Amino acid sequence: MVKGSCLCGAVAFEVEKFSSDIYKCHCSKCRKAFGGASSASAISAEGAFAWTQGQEGIEQFSCESGYTRYFCSVCGSVLPQSIPGKASYWVPVGLLDGDPGLKLSLHIHTASKAPWEILDEHTKSLEQGFEF
Q1: Strand order, beta sheet including 2-5
Q2: What is the mean pLDDT of each run of 10 residues along the chain (132 residues)?
Q3: Chain centroid to CA 114: how far?
């Protein structure tokens, strides 16, 4: 079991088990949402994820394209969110309080990565997203 929370601690959750290793998304929307070169995340089955505190303080923002991000209404940290139709949660691994025992295994949306970013040569890369 690994616990996680937003920057201020108002929203917290726990993950019993992840169903994927870590992947980094390099799309322009993740860069904007995270303020960095990519977002580092992992997938958890719906039954292995639980909110433990502050769920009432979760806000959401959606673009016209349907891209949606959930965030803490107090500190603005991007938060986990359910993946429609997949019975899974997308979990930003930077929110985790401990080591989830996962490794980076995939870069996605590399066709739209920032021109200044250099990817490592040992991790698999996909120009678009992936299906899980």
Answers
A1: 2-5, 12-15, 49-53
A2: 97 96 92 90 97 97 87 96 92 96 95 94 89 62
A3: 18
* pTM for this model (two decimals): 0.91
Helices of type H across 1-132 = 28-34
Query: In order of start, what are the domains of the chain with their CATH numbers?
Result: 2-125 (2.170.150.70)
- DSSP secondary structure string, 59-73? EEEE-TTS-EEEEET
Cα angle for residues 50, 98, 29 (degrees, 5° grid): 70
What would the two tokens of residue 98 be? 């401990």
Tally DSSP H helices, then E strands, for the chain: 1, 12
DSSP secondary structure code for residue 37 in this structure: S
CA distance 12 to 21: 21
- The neighbour count for residue 115, using CB atoms within 10 Å, is 4
